Amino acid sequence: METWVPAVLAVSAALLIAGGTVLRQRASASSGAITRGWWVGAIIAIAGFTLQAAALGLGTILLVQPLVVLAVLFSLPFEAWADHRHPKLGEWAWGGVLVACVVTFLLVARPTSSLRRPDLTLIAVTVVSVIGVVIAFVLIAERSSPHYRALFYGLTAGVLFGVSALLIKTVIYQAVHFPIGMFRHPEVYLLVIVIVGAIGAQQRGFGAGDLQTSFPAMVVMEPVVSMILGIVLLGENVKVSTKTALFLGIILAILARSVVELAKHSAVRGQTLKADPAPDSDDADSKEPAPDPGS
C-alpha cells in the first residue's frame, strides 16, 4: 500500500475529528445539554474515527498517529469561526511549530512496517506494564486534589486511547484476512473494554473541573503510547542512526509542547464560554428598576 493513501486518510480523519469536537463543544457550551448540534458533531467525529481506523488498517501507527494529532491544529479555524473571532498570533505560531514537527518527523523517520513480531514474554511484560500504569494513575487520581485528579485521569485516558489504536489495527487485520472467525479473537472484545474505559477516564478528568489540565495530558499521551506499542509489539521501524534518533526525540518533545499549548488555548476558551453569563443577562440587569432617590 502506498504511503500517501493512509496519510490522506489520517489527515482527513484529523479534519473531521476537529470539526466534530468543536461542534459538540459549542452546541453544549451554554447549558451542558445534548442538543441537535451536539449529535451532528458526534456523527462527524465518528466519521473521523472511522477514517482513522481505515488509515491504521492501511498504514503504520508511526505514520498515522502523528498526522491525527493535527486535529488540534485544525480546530483553530473551526473555533475561530464558531466564536466569531480571529485566532491569536500565538495560536498560529504554535500551530506552525506543530506542522513543522510532524513533517520533519515523517520525512526523517520514514516509518515502515515489518514482519517481526515479539515473543510471548515481551507481550506479557508490555501488557502487565500498561495495566500497572493505568491502575497507578487511577489510584493517584482518586487520592489527589481536583487539579491532579484531572491530570492523572487525562493521562489514563491517553494511555487507553493509545492502546485502542493498536487494537484497532489488529482488529482490522483480522477482519480483512480472517472475517469469518474474527469474533473468536479476544482483541475485538478487548477493544470495546479499552474504549469504554478510556471514555470513562476522560469523563472523570473533565468532571474534575480542570479541562485545561486533563485535555492536553490526554492529547499528548495517546500518540506517545500508540507509537511505543507500534514499535515494541508490531515491529514498526524507523531506520535512523543514534544521532538522528536523538534529534527525532527532540522533535517529538517540541511537538508534544505545541500540542499542549494549543490544547490549553482550546480548553481555556471552552471554560470561558461556559462561565460567560447568558447574552440576555446584561439586558435583564438594565431592566431592573432604578433605586428610589429618597432611599
Give the secondary structure arrangement, pairings included.
Elements: H1 4-27, H2 36-58, H3 61-68, H4 71-83, H5 89-109, H6 120-142, H7 146-177, H8 186-207, H9 211-234, H10 242-275, H11 281-286
Keywords: Membrane, Transmembrane, Transmembrane helix
Region (Disordered): 271-295
Protein name: DMT family transporter
Structure description:
The protein has 295 residues and is mainly alpha-helical. It has a domain at 114-235. It has eleven helices and no strands. It has helices spanning 4-27, 36-58, 61-68, 71-83, 89-109, 120-142, 146-177, 186-207, 211-234, 242-275, 281-286. Helix 6 (120-142) runs antiparallel to helix 7 (146-177). It is globular, with a radius of gyration of 21 Å. The chain crosses the membrane at residues 6-25, 37-55, 89-108, 120-140, 152-176, 188-206, 213-234. Residues 284-295 have a biased composition (Basic and acidic residues).
One letter per element, helices H and strands E, the order comes to HHHHHHHHHHH
Q: Strand tally, please?
A: 0
Main beta-sheet annotation: none
State the end-to-end distance.
Answer: 82 Å
Radius of gyration: 21 Å
Task: Tell me the fraction of residues in β-strands, as a range.
Answer: under 5%
H/I helix tally:
11
The best one-word shape is globular
Mean pLDDT value: 80
> What helical percentage do the residues reach?
over 70%
